[in-house]
Amino acid sequence: MLGFLKKPVVVTAEINLSLVALTVVGLMSRLWGLSYPRAVVFDEVYYGQFVSLYMKRIFFVDDSGPPLGHMLLALGGYLGGFDGNFLWNRIGAEYSTNVPVCSLRFLPALAGALCIPLAYQILVELQFSHCAALGAALLILLENSLITQSRFMLLESILIFFILLAVLSYLKFYNLQRHRVKYMGLFTYMLLLVIAGLHFWHMLGDQNLSNVSLVCHFLARGLTLLIIPVATYLSFFYVHLTLLYRSGPHDQIMTSAFQASLEGGLARITQGQPLEVAYGSQITLRNVLGKPMQCWLHSHTNTYPIRYENGRGSSHQQQVTCYPFKDVNNWWIVKDPGMQQLVVSNPPRPVRHGHIVQLVHGITTRYLNTHDVAAPLSPHSQEVSCYIDYNISMPAQNLWRVEIVNRESDTDVWKTILSEVRFVHVNTSAVLKLSGASLPEWGYRQLEVVGEKLSKGYHQSMVWNVEEHRYGKSQEQKEREVELHSPTRMDISKNLSFMAKFTELQWKILTLKNEDTEHKYSSSALDWITMDTNIAYWLHPTSGAQIHLLGNVCTWASANVAAVVYTCLSLWYLIRRRRKIYDIPEDAWQLWVSAGQICVGGWVVNYLPFFLMEKTLFLYHYLPALTFQILLIPIVLQHLSDHLCRSLLSKSMFSALTVAWFSSVCFAYRTFSPVTYGEPLSVAELKDLRWKDSWNILIRKQGH
Amino acid sequence: MGSYYINRTFFFDVHPPLGKMLIGLAGYLSGYDGTFPFQKPGDRYEQHNYMGMRGFCAFLGSCLVPFAYLTVLELSKSLPAALLTAFILIFDTGCITLSQYILLDPILMFFLMGAVLSMVKCNSCADRPFSASWWLWLSLTGVNLAGAMGVKFVGLFVVLLVGLNTIYDLWDLLGNLSLSLVMFGKHFLARVLCLILLPLTLYVAMFAVHFAVLNKSGPGDGFFSSAFQSQLIGNNLHNVSIPEHLAYGSVVTMKNLRMAGGYLHSHWHLYPEGVGARQQQVTAYLHKDLNNLWIIKKHDSDIDLLDSSSPVEFVRHGDIIRLEHKETSRNLHSHQHEAPLTRKHFQVTGYGINGTGDSNDFWRIEVVGRRAGKLIKVLRSKIRLTHVATGCILGSSGKTLPKWGWEQVEVTCTPYVKETPNSLWNFEDHINPKLPNISLDVLKPSFVEILLESHMVMIRGNSGLKPKDNEVTSKPWHWPINYQGLRFSGVNETDYRVYLLGNPVVWWLNLFTIGLYLLIAISTAVVLKRGVQLTSEHKELSRVVLCGGGQVALGWLLHYLPFFMMGRVLYFHHYFPAMLFSSMLTGITWDTLLKFFSQFLSPSTTARRVYGGGILTLILLITYSFYLFHPLSYGMIGPMASDPSSPMAGLRWMDSWEF
After folding, report:
1. Phi-psi region of A293 (alpha: psi -120 to 50; beta: other; left: phi over 0)
2. DSSP three-state, residue B54
């Protein structure tokens, strides 16, 4: 029973000293002087805002990716006791004392440093020699661009860390845990899925395995590679949404329902509104699209001009527009066409899908109307107006059918905030739509609302939802005006489920487009291979010290050469093997292929998608791809020395060349380390650093 | 479009010229005189002779059926499968509608199916390479590829399909050790010759014909560079003789050097409120217009330089000048307000009255790659205009302004000093009575330059067709489910209406079959990989499924998936090439499936009866559904289908159909 006592307790520790040494040196290179410069550096201005918002628990949307990266940065800020009170407005602004610079920058730096031992491990797992592994780690260590990128509050180093970790984990065949910082991670994930699929396909061909065990293998892979990542991904969003429960600057791009679930903002207004829209309800109608801006159906006493600038005529009736601000003129009353009263009866009679209603403008008591007159800016659509009877045989056509788009059954009740509604005109079957154009002077630049005759399918610009809502009580117009001006009050709270919030947020992240398409340091994907552009991150206000994102020229060039050599050699081997000529032993070939799958594949999937993207691209987007390319260098070198250098002499020649090449890498690192760490430099030294004309090294003019 | 060929005037379109040339040819042969304007759908043809062109398109469209029949027959070696495919295509309302009118799509699909058929035929000749029929089919593949590429760029996908097939083929030959390397080299060269060189030659020849036929100036001129325009008869740059060097007082037009860049333009309209300063708009305009004329003046004096007494003074590289708009007498002006669309650039306006403005009207004129003090040549010098006060550079962003700017192109002053064609200009027209005119023949671009330029313009035109935010557009996922058709003509109840919509029975059968095929293919592949022993009939079936079906399924993928990544405006008819592949897949899959199941039935007569009955049921189903839906393609009059009294009301199976 106490058998285990009889055996001595032994802890066998095997410490790979070179690995430890690499980690220590890596940490030193990334962490040294971390709080310098004590100023906002480049994109910190961007990520810093999000960290502040996290600290204040204010909801935001960022289109660059899922929230894990931001959350990790915020964690650093939280641990450093950051209160979020800093105005991130300008690159180069000095940090105030309440900003824990060091702890904010610590996590990215740590991730960057840990990439070095990871690279070492990956090569070892790929069955390459420790020498090659050491080489890969050193190359990553001496890569200036990776150092620069990890020393600030930026996401790339975290992304690279997780990508490498995932590759390593798969190689070690542990349960693969996918993390995602930015969507670039997705491409590596795809690559791993494909590789896993290939491995499984080979396993299928193995006749020794029984069907049952194959199914088990398949399920296990499905579980680890699909379900766990998805679950992790969802949990990040869950934490994100739980942390950020206050309304903030990005509210308006979300739907009313989402906004209502945040504390403050819209929720303050809508709290306690009646849920079901009834005949006599007073409502504001928000267009669901939210583009070009969020707006509400609006009308005012002004009429359409009799003739437009281009000579077309109008009905001269009251304008109906979409107005981007809250206003008393945004209120409409739902009226039953069969009855005169404008108040809610007791008990309220709810409006259901398919019911026919009239919409009465609250302040002017005119009816929403559309007819066969061309709209002011979109002549193919019908004009929408509030009807004025001029006695010119133009009858009112003010009946609208309510169609709830997201209904569950055909008898659904029209609900505040939750229901998305189309208004179909009964006479002409036109649909009430926001055209997106903004009206000229006479329409006060408000947005045009039209009746779309060719209502092809579903589009968000044709869908509206009730935002503010109250049951109308006053029959007299005067009283009603007072009532319309008064704020709404009542109490029912609506909460969206997590999945609904998640889908909406995810969709918005994917479809949100940033408008700014040009930046001083933006570059095209083709420039990256040759490193034609750099990015100036920071410049000392007085001395010439500056920090640039600039790679180790030597490493970049050799990484490209390695990729080309790898491709050519592979093609050569492949064609020769097809003709049944085997140049290298079978196990060496397997090694060569699997290394290529990871490294070249990693490079391809992290690089090529950028050619399809339309967003602004920067040099740092290339870093994940570069990391894979760097890993390829020692692989190619070792292969060359093992299999192509046959004589002893050529082998030693090759080693000598390798040493010479490596010292040039070190030299390039030394040369560019001043702009990596931001050491002060004289003008002459700066000019010497400008190896390429296209590089943008900032040289302060003398005499200023 | 064919009219342009008959009238030989130059025009611009986003598609390569072959399709329009063929239509033009058909029209020419059938006596159409090219005078009908083709302005908007619904116009009556009146006395114009259009039947030849329609007949030509319809003929090509009907060729699709035998092509598909032969392809499937070759792939599956099964007559019923081929018949099933043929019936699907004969009775698909969408295919009928699409090939009845003067459109590029029937021509494209003709070449596309031709390429596929020849490829499949060529593969079946693989056992006797270098025979006459092998050469014939191989070169026919090449010819059809050139044809498909020459009609629309969508032809690229079929090129890809044939390319993949060829690579696979060669790889196979390479692994065949009984084949010497010399023989392999021959195979390789034969394919290079027939599938790369031949189509390329034809494609280039087609453009040569295109440019040779269209030698008159027409509405498409402004899209092309000055050098290109000098080739066209009737263009004001054809055989030009203008003063060579730029002088003060000259009246000029300036053209942006980006592909399809416009002329610097201004007009009597102000920027609307809220868009920078309320000054006169300056835009880039693609067409020739009096408002494109500018006068070059010195920055510091306003004397009338055209006064005959004053001496001629040339503009030199590095000079500071002022550009006055001739029609409105406003100066080209820029200031630190944000530009209307590109927010990070500065706004460019027309400012001042009768030429008097302020120091923000001064621009430094520089020629790329020239030293200070040199003269500036019209047409040939690439000019950069630097704003003196802010240091920004005049450029065109290529973005289209909204309605208030008459949908012309935005002109901005960019603070980013990067050398792109966007910020370079050249002088095109140059009027100065005091200078001698010199004929400029040096401009003649080579054929290769013209070819490259026209491709750049086409690609730019294609990517310029972007949907706006609030427009309802057709999405690729709508297509296979036949979600929504395209209205070809007629909107109202009294009109004769034609609505492009696939036969829903056919399309949903196709859609279902794609899923079914995936299931069958995966299970077959797994069974083979597991090394299960199969009978010879089953082996044959699995070969048909994996090889024959695989090729067709690949074709479907290649013609469908790329649309998901396209940013341009998409239409329902873009799916039709993919639909052809999907119909062939349907034929092959159902035939195999029925064969496989009927083999389990014991007496062979029952088996044959079940198999034949199955195919017949499918064919009858398709025929009956065509009987129901035929008014879609042959036209209908009467109330809309949303009206319950319409005879089509019962057929409106989806709310999104609008016939």
Report:
1. beta
2. helix
Beta pairing partners, A432: A451
Closest CA to A534 of A521, A520, A552, A519: A521
Question: Are residues B379 and B359 in contact, defined by beta-carbon separation less than 8 angstroms?
Answer: no
How does pLDDT run across A425-457, given as a tens digit for each residue?
888 888 888 887 888 878 888 888 888 876 556
Could you please report the per-residue DSSP string of A198-249?
HHHHHHHT-TTS-HHHHHHHHHHHHIIIIIHHHHHHHHHHHHHHHH--B--T
Q: Which stretches of A608-647 are DSSP H helices?
A: 609-612, 623-639
Q: What value does the mean pLDDT take over residues A532-540?
A: 80
CB atoms within 10 A of CB A246: 16
C-alpha–C-alpha distance, residues A247 and A239, integer Å? 16
Chain B residues 202-241 within an 8 A CB cutoff of chain A: none
Of all residues in chain B, the one with the smallest CA distance to A214 is B530
* Contact call for residues B505 and B93 (beta carbons, < 8 A): no
For residues A380, A383, A384, A386, the Cα torsion angle rounded to the nearest 10 degrees is 180
How far is the CA of B480 from the CAs of A491, B106, B507, in angstroms? Answer: 47, 19, 7
Q: How far apart are CA A302 and CA A443, in angstroms?
A: 8
pTM: 0.75
A434 interfacial to chain B (CB closer than 8 Å): yes
CA angle B238–B239–B242, rounded 5-degree value = 100
Q: Name residues 83-142 of chain A within 8 A of B (Cβ).
A: none
Contact status of B561 with chain A (Cβ, < 8 Å)? no
Name the nearest CA neighbour of B417 among B434, B445, B394, B397.
Answer: B394
A289 touches chain B (CB under 8 A): yes
Q: Which of B404, B472, B487 sits opposite A459 (nearest CB)?
A: B472
Q: Which two tokens stand for residue B138?
A: 């191989």
Torsion angle in degrees (nearest 10) through CA of A476, A477, A478, A484 = 110
CA nearest to A288 within chain B:
B470
What is the structure's pLDDT at A444? 82
Mean pLDDT of chain A: 79
Could you tell me which residues come within 8 angstroms of residue A564 by beta carbon, excluding any fewer than 6 positions away?
none
Separation CA A694–CA A467 (nearest Å): 53
> How many other β-carbons are positioned within 10 Å of the β-carbon of residue A212?
8
pLDDT surpasses 80 at B65: yes
**Average pLDDT of span A566-577:** 91
- pLDDT one-digit tens code per residue, B120-173: 999 888 888 888 889 999 999 999 999 998 888 888 899 999 999 999 999 988
Dist. CA A682–CA A700, nearest whole Å = 10
In the chain, the amino acid numbered B408 is Q
Closest partner residue to A456 (CB to CB) among B181, B344, B472 is B472
Chain A nearest-CA residue for B562: A612
For residue A289, list chain B residues with Cβ-Cβ distance below 8 A.
469-470
Instruction: Look at A254 and A588; give whichever has higher pLDDT.
Output: A588
Q: How far is B397 from chain A (nearest CA, A)?
A: 11
Interface residue A580 vs chain B (CB under 8 A): yes
The CA–CA distances, whole Å, from A684 to A552, A701, B331 equal: 21, 12, 43
Given an 8 Å threshold on Cβ–Cβ distance, is B470 in contact with A515?
no
Please determine, for residue B613, whether its predicted confidence score (pLDDT) is greater than 80.
yes
Burial of B620 (0-12, 13-18, 19+ CB in 10 A): exposed
- Interface-testing mutation among B472, B492, B526, B564, with chain A (most A C-beta atoms within 10 A): B472
Q: Which ipTM value was assigned to this complex?
A: 0.71
| pLDDT reported for residue A493 | 45
